[in-house]
Design goal:
The protein is α+β, with helices and mostly antiparallel strands. It is built from six helices and six strands, in the order H-H-E-E-H-H-E-E-H-E-E-H. The longest helix is centred in the C-terminal third of the chain and has 18 residues.
């Protein structure tokens, strides 16, 4: 188990890597939207390290990140615990229009904040549903 698997509390098996490839990662760092290349088989923490950013607990707590799922829904969260808070909501929702434009996210896509870790599954349930993208970009 590598250092990120320990921090996430998740073993990176083939099912997890397949899930990672199925979604498109993004993050918001210092007010700027960053979008990962498609089909990457690894976590946000690995992506960040490859970009030269140290994926410390502090960095993960303040950097809003998420993904667009294979069915087009959008998930966002902070921390290794996949939490959502008012700060993350404000940052994410204020840049959702830009993100939706860059990733061509449908207006009917659902927006979810936070995720609840589950064993034996790769797509975890969201902590909160915010409605559709359309609600936030008009």
């Amino acid at each position: 188990m590598d250092k990120f698997e320990k921090r996430y509390g998740i073993a990176e098996d083939e099912n997890v890597r397949a899930f990672h490839r199925s979604r498109r990662m993004f993050c918001i760092k210092d007010g700027k939207v960053y979008i990962a290349k498609p089909n990457l088989p690894y976590s946000h923490a690995v992506w960040f390290e490859k970009k030269g950013w140290k994926a410390t607990s502090s960095f993960m707590d303040k950097t809003v990140r998420g993904f667009v799922s294979k069915n087009g829904d959008v998930f966002f969260f902070v921390g290794y615990g996949f939490r959502v808070n008012r700060r993350a909501e404000f940052i994410f929702l204020s840049l959702l229009k830009e993100l939706a434009g860059k990733l061509r996210i449908k207006h009917s896509a659902r927006v979810y904040g936070g995720m609840i870790k589950q064993k034996g599954t790769t797509q975890w349930p969201a902590r909160k549903c915010y409605g559709t993208v359309k609600k936030y970009i008009n």
